[in-house]
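Aim 2 progress. For DUF4865 domain-containing protein, the working sequence is reproduced below.
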Amino acid sequence: MQYEITLPADYDMNIIRRRVAERGHLLDDFPDLAVKAYLMRERGHADSPVNQYAPFYLWRAAQGMNRFLWGSGFHGLSRDFGRPRVRSWLGLAVEDGPAQAAAVTAATRRLEPLAPDADPAQEIERARRALPVDLAGVHTTALAIDTARWELLTFTLWSEHTLWSEHTLRSEHTLRSEPPVPEHGERYQVLHLSRPELAELPRGRHW
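Predicted C-alpha cells for this construct:
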C-alpha cells in the first residue's frame, strides 16, 4: 500500500523530516503491520522531478490496513495534506537481502506494466527470479501486482545510500552519495522504518 503527497517545488522538505521525526515511532508496534517505510523524494535530488512524501506499507493482514486507514493516523494526514489516493497491490513475494543487520536509509520502487498478450504467471515468475536478493546493500525486497492496471511492482529497501552503475551491478557495489541506481526504479530517502511484524511476514512466493 502506498500514497503519494506531491508538494510545491519550493516546499521546505525539512517540515516532512520533522513530522517523521516526531511521529514516525507511533507505528513501531502497530498490529498486522510488517513494514512502514517513511519515504521522501526531493526535487533535484536522485533524479526526482518533484518534492514528495510517499510512505509505503507491507501489511500482514487486511485488518491492520483497515484499522490504519479508518483510524486517527490517516485522518490526521488527510487533515494536514488533503486525503490522498491510496494504491494497493496483491503481494506476490518477499525476500531478505544480505544487509539485514544494517540500518535502512533508501528505497526503490519499480513499476512494470504487463503486455496485453503476456502470460501473467510467466511474467510474475520472471520478476520474482529477478528480485535483487543477492545485491550488497539490499535489506528486503518485495514483488506485488496491481490487477486493475496489470502492473508489477518491485519494492526494495536498501541499507546504504548506494549507487551502482551498469558495470558495478554485474560486479561489486560502490558507495556514493545518492540512493540506488535508476535501473531499480524511482529512488527515495527512508526517514524512518517501522517494522513491528516484518519477521512474521512469510518469505518466498505467496501463491
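Helices lie at 14-23, 62-69, 72-81, 120-129, 166-169. This observation will guide construct design in the next reporting period.
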